[in-house]
Amino acid sequence: MAEINHAIKGTNDVLPKESYKIQFVENIMLSTAKLYGFREIRVPVFEHTEVFSRNVGDTTDVVQKEMYTFDDKGGRSITLRPELTAGVVRSSIEHGLIYDALPQKVCYIGGCYRYEKPQAGRLREFHQFGIECLGASSPAADAEVICVANQVLSTLGIKKISLQINSIGCPICRKNYQQALKEYFEANIDELCDTCKDRLQRNPMRILDCKSPVCSKLAANAPKVIDFLCDDCKEHFEGVKKHLDSAGLKYTINPQIVRGLDYYTRTVFEFVSGDIGAQSTVCGGGRYDGLVEQMGGNPTPALGFGMGIERLLLLMENQETEIPDDTTCDLYIAPMGENAAYEATKLSSILRSDGFEVATDVCGRGLKAQMKYADKIGAKFTMVIGDNELESKKAIIKNMKTGDTAEISLDNIGDEFIKTFSQTYLDNLTDTVMDFGN
């Protein structure tokens, strides 16, 4: 019984007192993406395992160690998505998005699942915001995608964050780089961890992403991919930098960035902060020009990014970034007696249709208990209805902040409450302006 009363390790419950923060962040993410023409797409939480094992990369930690994979009742191998790009590309091919007007710009928010060691900023169930731009090969598209991420972070008030970029080339120029890496690490093979010894034969670039201190130290002196770029990839990377310069974005070139998934080509980037410990990458992404074709579609250039929401909220908390307070109940109607309860239901329905958050008693409490409850939920106004109010068709509404009261007509509750609520809002606004002026 003790186990079923606790969330599974690596997962978090989001309680009502915290959920509004997530809603605030998600609304900014989606509204910012829309400014650039990105529209929301939703794909399943689980896919055929091959969607990830063949396309994310069988040499990555994600595929080798972290995926939640199982056989369903039909004997099919199913995997909970460890990331969303592969699923979005699968959907875009299946439903013909890549054969429609290009570029196709989509964004998403969804849960992902990886069996990792839980720590601050890293959970086994986590949520990502991301965008994918399908059908654009220009360096301007790379810069635009990076600008979306930058504007989200800026709008949220994130401080002290840096943009790091790199180019890992195309499959053609990367062959020479892979060979140079292999020769470098073979000369130091005894110092590599067991995982990286295996990576050396299958994909030596994965060693650059290893978190082992010894492997990281070796990787720091390894050949740099940027020195092996072909002329086309060099020109593309120069174009990306020029567009970022034009947009006024500051960046540094970090030759160690390769990203953790095999489908990336050319531009890769990360937004990094030093305020969240070891999990310093807040947003990461890049170009994946071969993925659509690899998954069965026509050759289609593409790029995007993913941004961890839990990690971002942790950063905002550490930086004490301001998030607007959650809205509270506009009016609590306290009925006394059965007939008053019916009237309270009627009045609540009218006011909710006008867009107000209204609460009334659903527990059969006495007046004192109702008032205590109204105070706990932060009701801005309260109104008591009893036999006298039902007979006169009038009631007293009380401003819980100021203690001011006013009489309103129950038959005209919508218009009169709107008038009372609006006047209070204007008074508060005037006080705020006067305080600001002083």
How would you describe the overall organization of this protein?
The chain is α+β, with helices and mostly antiparallel strands and 438 residues long. It has 2 domains: 3-170 and 230-318, BirA Bifunctional Protein, domain 2, CATH 3.30.930.10; 331-430, Anticodon-binding domain (Rossmann fold). It is 41% helix and 20% strand. The strands form 3 sheets. The protein has an 8-stranded mixed sheet with strand order 1-5-6-11-10-9-7-8. Strand 15 and strand 16 (405-409) form a beta hairpin. Helix 1 (16-35) runs antiparallel to helix 5 (139-155) and helix 5 runs parallel beside helix 9. The model is unreliable at 429-438 (pLDDT under 50).
CATH class identity of the largest domain:
Alpha Beta
Spans of 5+ residues with little confidence (pLDDT < 50)?
A: 429-438
Distance between the termini: 59 Å
Give me the side-by-side strand order of the main sheet: 1-5-6-11-10-9-7-8
- The fraction of residues in strands falls at 15-25%
**Whole-number tally of structural domains:** 2
Number of helices: 15
Main pleated-sheet profile? 8 strands, mixed
CATH architecture of the largest domain: 2-Layer Sandwich
CATH topology of the largest domain: BirA Bifunctional Protein, domain 2
Mean pLDDT: 89
**Proportion in helices:** 40-55%
Q: Provide the gyration radius in Å.
A: 28 Å
CATH superfamily of the largest domain: Bira Bifunctional Protein, Domain 2
Total strand count, please?
Answer: 16
> Judging from the principal axes of the Cα atoms, what is the shape?
elongated
Q: Which structural class fits the helix and strand makeup?
A: alpha+beta
